[in-house]
Design brief:
alpha/beta; five-stranded mixed beta sheet; 4 helices; elongated; binds zinc ion
């Protein structure tokens, strides 16, 4: 596959992941979306739902990996690529290694908790027996804007709520 073709394909699937992240923000969850693709077909998808599921493990990547494993009926999701709008955390990077995914493509970097290069790199740790190919920064601007817009709106609504409460006192 040519580099240009690969880039176009990565951007196509990242847009798909962005649309999944939108569903998370509709539920007032931090908008992160993930899709797993094999032979150009979706085999798993998910979005962050930690709060509504009361589940600290409810990240987009975990949802997508569980969905994919069920659909391929294998606890290993071999040869597949995961596209995720935000750099995976330690838990999700660990799950990506356990699932034996071939490639990880992410959009926005996460300087605080990202474990695919930001604070460490679990996907290519020399001591682990599985290494994952990485592409970063795909539609990074769109991905980070989506998240910062969400936090901005949330801060505004908290402020408005406070003001409304004060007005009642
Ligand atoms: Zn995670």
């Amino acid at each position: 596959m040519s580099d240009l073709h690969q880039r176009q394909q990565d951007e196509y699937w990242m847009r798909y992941a962005l649309s999944l992240a939108d569903r998370a923000s509709q539920l007032a969850e931090v908008p992160v979306g993930a899709v797993i693709v094999l032979d150009n077909k979706v085999i798993g998808e998910g979005y962050n739902r930690s709060i509504i599921d009361v589940d600290p493990c409810g990240h987009a990547e975990i949802m997508a990996i569980q969905d994919a494993a069920k659909r391929v009926n294998n606890y290993r999701v071999l040869d597949a690529t995961i596209y995720v709008t935000l750099e995976p955390c330690s838990m999700c990077a660990g799950a990506i290694v356990h699932a034996r995914l071939k490639r990880t493509v992410f959009g926005a970097a996460d300087a605080k908790t990202g474990c695919v290069g930001s604070i460490m790199n679990i996907l290519q740790h020399p001591s682990l027996n599985h290494q994952v190919d990485i592409a970063s920064g795909v539609l990074a601007d769109e991905c980070s804007t989506q998240i910062s817009r969400f936090f901005k709106a949330r801060r505004a609504s908290i402020k408005a709520e406070k003001k409304a409460k004060q007005a009642l006192q």
